[in-house]
Design a protein that fits this description.
- Helix 10 crosses helix 12.
- Helix content is 22%, strand content 31%.
- The chain is globular.
């Protein structure tokens, strides 16, 4: 920071940068001066970009003095919305200075974007040798042997754009926007038929033109042995952090999905590097040497319905209680007698898990689960614990559920403060959605195994073996990723640091404190004039022991429901067979009664009217298989 013009520095590439008053003689990387940023001068090295276009890439690099404060490199738009933030990484230290590189690809046109460095701490941060670049177009590589050239009809591509725009407007990617389109992809010179749709829940999966997709391979073809997989921006899974954990899971015989990196294009538009991840099908089980059996999950549609058009909604509704337990590949499961039988056994176990049955050892192989939880601590993984992110394999050989490790990271800083997930220095309570995972720590058998695995995995010898085995591969992949993401840095030091923190806290880990289920009282007034179909009524028909057709109906809506009648046609509301009198269902209660209604005819849909909306609604009556 040698050259000054008025109140501006002159950067290495001759740009005028504000706040030359921060010039300091205390340290320098080259020459005599650097820029000092502290609580007396917390904003420095400001620069304004003007008339930027979508697809432009801003690249800023600067050297920071190590051992002192670490400031924040920030980009903000003309409305002062933060576009991106970067702090220093420990790698590439040269003469006690570390290179910090910020890269950002613009998702739309901007009149102005401002850059500055921010540090409000008393201890200063020092910077030198600033370089500023704007590339007209981000550099997107094409891997010769690992590239997917995806092609769909032009009219379907237009629909995808409309779905994407609608999702951005709603704040989430709802089920209605995940319709499939037929097409093909070319991989290793082979043309492969596919079905493709948008993938993900939050709209971080739709940033710029690098959208996330679910792809199903048709016919007798496959992709790397997979019939169904996703591709997504590597950032949504925290790049190589997800990759290394999948490697460790596989080494430890934990069920996990295949995960790696490719490049992709859509109708000729090069989209650059993607992370691919296997979906839940029999190929996953074959790869992990498991017997073919159903994979189960909680139906999470309810939680996303409450977020539609209101993504920051934090109000609690009974989406957990209303969530059904469903299998992946439902059609194939219920068309096979053996798989259907296995599903009902898995359903019974998962229902006990959801209802907090005490005997977890009758539901899970607790040694397997303890191993998984311990590895989550080594990787500082918490995203996978969310109830709607959990996936289970029903193991018919030992009649237990096995967690499937995937979706470890959210691609953002999650603010994780705990070191050992099961550690508590006092009695703690949780609502049922979090208690679902915490209940294991009330089981002595589980805690004993958990501590054993924490001790094993946190040892320096174990962690060194991981680094030795995968460092070369991770360095190669990191260099590949730099082709598109030049500021991306990765090393396994964070795993070593996590392990060290676990090792040190394990000495004080006392499992005598219970985790308690906190009562959840819903605010019935919060329902206002809303109705969420997946948190409405659930109706199921079955034949009782007297050979009578019976409907079992439960209300999960936070207001009164009036049952009006039923029909075999969801769309033609003129053909409703009405009840003699409407049947009243009281608002949802935790231990509310289930209505059993004997019926003569076999109908597929039931019609009703919520009191708070007065709108006519319909839901499908679930069949007993």
């Amino acid at each position: 920071m040698e050259r000054v013009e008025g109140t501006h520095f002159i950067s290495q590439n001759l740009d005028l940068v504000s706040k030359s008053l921060s010039q300091s003689l205390e340290y320098s990387k080259s020459g005599k001066f650097s820029a000092k940023v502290d609580n007396e001068n917390p904003y420095a090295l400001g620069y304004t970009f003007e008339h930027l276009e979508k697809g432009n890439e801003i690249i800023i690099s600067i050297w920071e003095k190590t051992g002192l404060s670490k400031g924040y490199l920030k980009l903000v738009d003309e409305n002062k919305n933060i576009l991106t933030v970067k702090r220093s990484h420990k790698k590439k230290i040269e003469s006690q200075w570390v290179l910090v590189t910020l890269s950002y690809i613009l998702e739309k046109d901007y009149n102005q974007v401002k850059f500055f460095i921010h540090n409000e701490k008393t201890v200063p941060a020092y910077y030198d040798d600033l370089k500023i670049e704007v590339l007209k177009r981000s550099k997107r590589p094409i891997f010769k042997k690992e590239n997917l050239a995806i092609q769909i009809k032009s009219k379907d591509l237009e629909k995808l754009f409309r779905y994407r725009d609608k999702a951005i407007q709603n704040g989430i990617i709802s089920k209605s926007l995940k319709k499939k389109f037929s097409g093909f992809m070319v991989y290793n010179n082979e043309k492969i038929p596919i079905e493709i749709r948008l993938k993900g829940d939050w709209i971080d999966h739709l940033v710029g033109d690098k959208w996330s997709f679910r792809i199903k391979v048709g016919g007798d073809k496959d992709f790397k042995g997979m019939k169904s997989f996703s591709i997504q921006h590597p950032k949504t899974r925290s790049f190589l952090k997800e990759w290394i954990m999948h490697k460790i899971f596989k080494d430890e015989n934990i069920l996990t999905t295949r995960y790696g990196f490719i490049t992709a294009s859509l109708n000729g538009n090069n989209l650059g590097i993607y992370a691919y991840e296997e979906h839940f099908s029999k190929e996953l089980l074959e790869y992990n040497q498991r017997i073919h059996s159903p994979i189960l999950k909680f139906n999470e549609e309810g939680i996303w319905e409450t977020r539609s058009n209101n993504p920051k909604n934090k109000k609690l509704y009974p989406f957990f209680e209303a969530s059904e337990i469903i299998p992946f590949q439902k059609k194939s499961v219920f068309s096979s007698d053996s798989l259907k039988k296995a599903f009902y056994k898995g359903l019974e176990l998962m229902t006990k898990y959801k209802n907090f049955e005490i005997n977890l050892e009758d539901i899970f192989d607790l040694n397997y689960t303890a191993k998984l939880y311990a590895l989550y601590d080594i990787g500082k993984i918490r995203h996978s614990y969310h109830w709607h992110n959990q996936r289970f394999y029903y193991n018919p050989r030992i009649h237990t559920l096995e967690h499937i490790a995937f979706d470890c990271y959210a691609g953002i800083e999650e603010g994780i403060e705990d070191v050992i997930y099961g550690y508590s220095d006092s009695k703690s309570s949780y609502f049922k959605m979090a208690f679902l995972s915490k209940q294991f720590f009330n089981n002595e058998q589980f805690v004993s195994s958990y501590k054993k695995f924490l001790s094993k995995f946190s040892q320096e010898e174990y962690m060194n073996s991981i680094v030795q085995k995968y460092e070369s591969s991770s360095d190669s992949l990191s260099n590949l990723l730099k082709n598109e993401f030049p500021n991306y840095e990765f090393d396994m030091d964070y795993l070593m640091a996590n392990a060290k923190a676990v090792r040190e806290l394990l000495v004080d880990y006392d499992s005598s404190y219970d985790f308690v289920l906190k009562p959840l009282n819903y605010d019935y007034g919060s329902i206002d004039n809303n109705f969420f179909p997946s948190i409405g009524i659930k109706a199921k028909k079955y034949i009782n022991d007297k050979n009578q057709l019976v409907l079992k109906i439960k209300n999960f809506h936070l207001d009164t429901i009036y049952l009006l009648g039923y029909s075999n046609n969801e769309k033609n509301r003129n053909n409703i067979v009405e009840f003699k009198e409407s049947i009243l269902l009281a608002p949802f209660q935790m231990k509310g009664d289930i209505l059993e209604l004997k019926v003569i005819d076999n109908y597929d849909f039931i019609y009703f009217r919520p009191k708070n909306t007065s709108h006519l609604e319909v839901t499908e009556i679930e069949k007993s298989y």
